[in-house]
Amino acid sequence: MASLAQQFTGLRCSPLSSSRLSVKPKKTQKVSTFASPIVSVIADAQTKARLELKQVFEDAYERCRSAPMEGVSFTLDDFQNALEKYDFDSEIGTKVKGTVFCTDGNGALVDITAKSSAYLSVQEASIHKIKHVEEAGIVPGLRDEFVIIGELEADDSLVLSLRSIQYELAWERCRQLQAEDVVVKGKIVGGNKGGVVALVEGLRGFVPFSQISSKTSAEELLDKELPLKFVEVDEEQTRLVLSNRKAMADSQAQLGIGSVVLGTVQSLKPYGAFIDIGGVNGLLHVSQISHDRVSDIATVLQPGDTLKVMILSHDRERGRVSLSTKKLEPTPGDMIRNPTLVFEKAEEMAQTFRQRIAQAEAMARADMLRFQPESGLSLSGDGELGPLTSDLPPEGLDLSDVTEAEDS
């Protein structure tokens, strides 16, 4: 065992040389020497690209400075013509065409081909009161005519209105309806001690109490619709006056004297009763209630009673109608004793009354012809007034050959 150790002890290892220790650094040196050309190529390529890009920018800058319109087909003249094509007068009161492209709770934005969009508020969107512009049919895509009423200082955008245009059209419409003497419907929206305010064609008109056929207050008429006729239409003075009496008189004109209508007692007065006959207040005078004397109207009629009455006369200008139940009595006093019988026989009695009126008119015409033969008119067997017939020569009859009547 000891000899073996001695054998190993005698062994000697040669020391490491410096050349063998430098192997690894030599490899590192070889790698560094191999990569250097690649890095240089990349750096050169980037520098070249930067230089080329810089030259492009410099060339573009020089072109913009020296010849900005070079290669551009749209000339300055074309640009000026385009401006003139879309130019418009932006003064207040000018009417312009525009297209709605956006709406919200406050109004709408309108494209009028100006430098900025125009604004239409909900208050200027309609002559009627609305909460949203879409209630007036103003939706994106709508093209209409607007009028310029102002300008917003914040962005110099224009303020538009449709209400002003509708306002002008409404006055024109009222003037036309007045000229045609047309009956229109008006909704009562307010009142004062002198009358009520009615909404007609989007305008607020005044109806004096003297021009209302029924004896009612402004509170009772509120929110109701009344037939109306135009009395005065003055846009310059903003004056619109209407009449309910004239409208009702016109509607009752077709009834004529002798017509039987259904009415409701509205109120009682010492001199008679006011009867509502379809919106018109007619007077049933105490003397026209019955052939018998009526000392107290309340013993015969009460407010709210429904009855049949006959029209005696009506004043179209003043809107007054005179009524009668006396002419409908089969026998005098029936209106007091048996009003039901009077109403049952009303049409029959009215027909008899009209026949008597026709006979009276025929007799009056005959008397007129008797005293005015030169009128050139004759009376037929039916009581109709017309031209002379062929049987009667215009120069009259020759009575010279007619023998005198002999005494019996």
Automatic annotation (TrEMBL):
<keyword id="KW-0687">Ribonucleoprotein</keyword>
<dbReference type="GO" id="GO:0006412">
    <property type="term" value="P:translation"/>
</dbReference>
<keyword id="KW-0809">Transit peptide</keyword>
<dbReference type="GO" id="GO:0003735">
    <property type="term" value="F:structural constituent of ribosome"/>
</dbReference>
<dbReference type="GO" id="GO:0005840">
    <property type="term" value="C:ribosome"/>
</dbReference>
<dbReference type="GO" id="GO:0009570">
    <property type="term" value="C:chloroplast stroma"/>
</dbReference>
<dbReference type="InterPro" id="IPR050437">
    <property type="entry name" value="Ribos_protein_bS1-like"/>
</dbReference>
<keyword id="KW-0694">RNA-binding</keyword>
<keyword id="KW-0150">Chloroplast</keyword>
<keyword id="KW-0677">Repeat</keyword>
<dbReference type="Pfam" id="PF00575">
    <property type="entry name" value="S1"/>
</dbReference>
<feature type="compositionally biased region" description="Low complexity">
    <location>
        <begin position="374"/>
        <end position="388"/>
    </location>
</feature>
<keyword id="KW-0689">Ribosomal protein</keyword>
<feature type="domain" description="S1 motif">
    <location>
        <begin position="181"/>
        <end position="245"/>
    </location>
</feature>
<comment type="similarity">
    <text>Belongs to the bacterial ribosomal protein bS1 family.</text>
</comment>
<dbReference type="GO" id="GO:0003729">
    <property type="term" value="F:mRNA binding"/>
</dbReference>
<dbReference type="InterPro" id="IPR003029">
    <property type="entry name" value="S1_domain"/>
</dbReference>
<feature type="region of interest" description="Disordered">
    <location>
        <begin position="374"/>
        <end position="408"/>
    </location>
</feature>
<protein>
    <recommendedName>
        <fullName>Small ribosomal subunit protein bS1c</fullName>
    </recommendedName>
</protein>
<keyword id="KW-0934">Plastid</keyword>
<feature type="domain" description="S1 motif">
    <location>
        <begin position="93"/>
        <end position="163"/>
    </location>
</feature>
<feature type="domain" description="S1 motif">
    <location>
        <begin position="258"/>
        <end position="326"/>
    </location>
</feature>
<dbReference type="GO" id="GO:1990904">
    <property type="term" value="C:ribonucleoprotein complex"/>
</dbReference>
<dbReference type="InterPro" id="IPR012340">
    <property type="entry name" value="NA-bd_OB-fold"/>
</dbReference>
